[in-house]
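S1.2 Input.
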Amino acid sequence: MPSFSEKLKEIERVVAEWKRHKHYRRHGLKLRDVAAELGVSTCYLSNYVNTVEGMNFSAWLNSLRIEEAKRIMLKHPEMPIYEVGHKVGHPHYESFKKAFLTLTGESPEAWHEQTIGISL
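S1.3 Output.
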């Protein structure tokens, strides 16, 4: 039976691969879905996210999505904000705006204008 340390390293490896492929961009993801996809228990994945990432699963998923949204906006400043949200796993603009505001303290439009200098 693997030790906790060995299990943690394995989870870190599969999570890193999952993130590298940007699977977090799919909308509707639940803890159980991601755990099954990674081949780990929901308990192990939840503990990993809480302990290593320092947040719950939902907050972690949103943080990945919002960082990806920022990268997309920097690379494609002309892309409509609602489309950016959809690309990162928020099919509804309001949920994207709320998640963005929660994590950054500003709306996606305000961040875009302040960071990129273009008002959409």
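S1.4 Remarks. The two ends are 55 Å apart (CA to CA).
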